[in-house]
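Box 4.2: Ligand-aware structure prediction
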Amino acid sequence: MMNKQEVLSILEQYGLSATKSLGQNFLCNEDVIERILDLAEISDQTHVLEIGPGIGALSENAVKSAKKYVAVEIDTTFQPRLEAVIEASGGRVIYKDYLAFDTSELEESEMPEVVISNLPYYVMTPIMLKVMADFPNLRKMVYMVEEEAEARIFAKAGTKQYGPLSVLTDLRGKKSKCFTVDRGSFVPSPNTTSSVITIECEQGGRWDKEWIRFVESAFALRRKTLVNSLSSSGFKKEDVTAALAGIGKPANVRAEQLEPTDFVEIYDFLNGKDGE
Ligand code: SAM
């Protein structure tokens, strides 16, 4: 039973403490843990990847339910605890910054269908974007994010928060806001309320680094036109202008005025896939 007392006693037992710069806020609310695991729908057929297991609040039960369980954790001080929680139950932990992790480090049989993470907030966006590029065949993502990030993920075109994360998560599948989590559910408490979200992934479509970089580049110079933003990342101005004309948009449109599907059409046009 993970509660505040239990988290503190595990930290003491293993001589650990939370490192703020690594976004370490450990879950200490059993009800929240159970609800997250319910959303992940892990069965004895499921291959799971967890990013940032920490002291194993989510891992402890998930590793027992899953067919394959791999976790990527940056902080090696958790190793003795994670050996007892994950490795003793047949899972594997890779000690690495997820942003430096390469999918070739996984066996074919370890490729995940489900990714779960109580995300370290300082690096939330790059991790979410990298998961999309790393695992194009995922079935589901279940994430704990901070409230401000939830607003960016669910933002609509034309709003201030609308950006690459809104566009890419929108195209990746069906996204849902599941429930909010108060600050007291973590040790130590973060500065903001958190929120659990899921993305049920659609299969197919392009999910690689180039596509993700394209959408990021489109928003790189937010106040400038799309043409200027993309040309500063190496795309030819005349090609972007032609792509916009092709989808009936003015040459001076800004990225934040475009719907997610517009980005797909522009990208296809720039890659010569128009009309295929
Ligand atoms: N899953 C645990 C829980 O729910 O209690 C811990 C969550 S804590 C918010 C974030 C975790 O991500 C920490 O264990 C932290 O060390 C780890 N982490 C931070 N940056 C990371 C990175 N770049 N790659 C992998 N893990 C990272």
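In the box above, the bound molecule is S-adenosylmethionine. The chain has a mean pLDDT of 95.
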